[in-house]
Write a structure and sequence with these properties.
This protein has about 110 residues and is mainly beta. The protein is built from one helix and eight strands. The protein has one helix at about 75; strands at about 10-15, 20, 35, 40-45, 60, 65-70, 80-85, 90. The strands form two sheets. Strands 1-3-5-7 form a four-stranded parallel β-sheet, with no helix packed on it. The protein has a four-stranded parallel β-sheet with strand order 2-4-6-8. The radius of gyration is 13 Å and the shape is globular.
């Protein structure tokens, strides 16, 4: 089994765990994921395609200096909050970015 086989998972908080390497592409199958915190690790390589993760509302990838690639503006627009500061991630084309919330590292949520 892979992490992506956890298709019923709704929250995954792995920030500040010294994780290395790439984000597994199989995580794109985690379509019920609402919260994904991978910030403050040592992740690298291309960011995965988050477009199939339509339930995702919070995406924290900040402080992974070697994480690169592109996340579409359409994906970011449907999020309630995201953080990509301290990465090499670019915002791709889409419907234009609206009301971006960047930087909320310790945001309260239930």
């Amino acid at each position: 089994k892979t992490l992506g086989d956890c298709t019923e998972l709704k929250q995954l908080r792995l920030n500040d765990n010294k994780l290395r390497g790439e984000i597994p592409a199989s995580m794109g199958k985690m379509v019920k994921l609402v919260i994904l915190h991978l910030n403050s690790n040592q992740l690298s390589g291309e960011v995965i395609d988050f477009s199939s993760m339509e339930s995702l509302k919070q995406l924290l990838l900040a402080s992974n200096a070697d994480l690169e690639g592109e996340i579409s503006a359409d994906v970011l627009n449907r999020l309630e909050s995201y953080s990509i500061d301290g990465t090499k991630i670019n915002i791709g084309s889409g419907g234009g970015l609206q009301n971006p919330e960047t930087g909320g590292e310790d945001m309260p949520w239930e």
